Amino acid sequence: MWFALTIVVSVIALSHGVPQCTELGEYAMQRDVKDDLIPKILRYSPGQDIASVSSVYDCDLEKMASDLLTKTYKTLDFLKPIGIYPLIYSIDGRDENNVRLMTHAALQTWKNYIEDIPFLTFGCNYRYENGMHNYLCLLRHKAE
């Protein structure tokens, strides 16, 4: 019981520390999705020594993820050579209102990768377009 309560309190505390990245304007991730997704990514990265969410969350990577999600002609091949590992997830979700369920599905798909890739910083974004929930998280796993 105490263990479950500790996890819930930790996730709530982490969600309050998620940077808003307001300077991104239209490229910023939808706030409710961000508050749900980011703390859970940190929870699945047990090897990370994280002082605060803002020390590992990168607004520039959030913008890059937005650019990649909105420009379908872009390939993700250029990311790995520059030290960025992409986690992408898309699912048909006829209803935009079930975004929490879709976020959970994305996290379950990514869980093993997040646990195995030590990252320095990361940034994510989400778009709902044409009946599809599209998620992209970029994990910077080596210094530039």
Characterize this entry briefly.
By secondary structure, the protein is α+β, with helices and mostly antiparallel strands.
Biggest beta-sheet profile: 3 strands, antiparallel
Could you state the order of secondary-structure elements as H and E? HHHHEHEE
Please mark out the parts with pLDDT under 50 across 5 or more consecutive residues, or reply none: 2-15
Rg computed from alpha carbons, rounded to a whole number of angstroms: 15 Å
Q: What amount of the residues lies in strands?
A: 15-25%
Q: How many structural domains in the coordinates?
A: 1
Q: How many beta-strand elements?
A: 3
* Strand-pairing-aware structural class: alpha+beta
Give the terminus-to-terminus CA distance. 43 Å
Helix fraction, binned, reads 40-55%
Protein name: SCP domain-containing protein
Keywords: Signal
Signal peptide: 1-17
InterPro entries: ASPR
Give me some keywords for this one.
144 residues; signal; 19% strand; alpha+beta; 5 helices
